[in-house]
Amino acid sequence: MKEIKDTKDKCTLCRKCVGICRKTVGRKAIIYVESGNESATLEFISERCIACGSCSYICSDGAIIFEDIGDTRVITTPAGRMEFKLKKCNKCGYYWAPEKQVKLMAEKANLPLAYFDLCPDCRV
Ligand code: SF4
Ligand code: SF4
To answer: How does pLDDT run across 41-94, given as a tens digit for each residue?
Structure first.
């Protein structure tokens, strides 16, 4: 099967993903760049992205695709592919959330990172 490198042809430049990343997630990882000749592109800044998936859920054009493959979350966007490590549950071994997202949750909730050693199913 041929690997999809980007989803540029699907993107309508509606900017819903830009808004949700900025306003709801608070990351500013997607930038709408105007080129001056009435065309524009999206830029995805992987250093800011926590691989949360919100942009994919809100994109009704299928232009942001998430896949969890083993220990890696692959995100295919109109600007190309990004890869992020997933966190493994210490009990059942399931890769349950992106490491960057878990780290941010721990910071925001003022909890030690070890609090997230188990996946939600094993925590109950
Ligand atoms: S990726 Fe989806 S949500 Fe984002 S601008 Fe393109 S079509 Fe809109
Ligand atoms: S996956 Fe990344 S780019 Fe998409 S909303 Fe979350 S932080 Fe933003």
So the answer is: 999 999 999 999 999 999 999 999 999 999 999 999 999 999 999 999 999 999
Looking at ligand 1, which atom is closest to the CA of residue 58? Answer: 3
Residue 119 lies in a domain: no
Question: Which ligand minimizes its atom distance to the CA of 61?
Answer: 1
Q: What is the domain-level CATH number for residue 65?
A: 3.30.70
pTM for this entry: 0.93
Q: What is the DSSP string of 25-74?
A: I----EEEEE-SSS-EEEEE-TTT-----HHHHH-TTS-SEEEEETTEEE
- The set of protein residues with a Cβ atom below 6 angstroms from ligand 1 is 11-17, 42, 58-59, 61, 63-64, 78
Range of the domain at 99: 8-109
Position 63 in a domain = yes
118 found inside a domain: no
Gap from CA of 7 to ligand 2 centroid (Å):
16
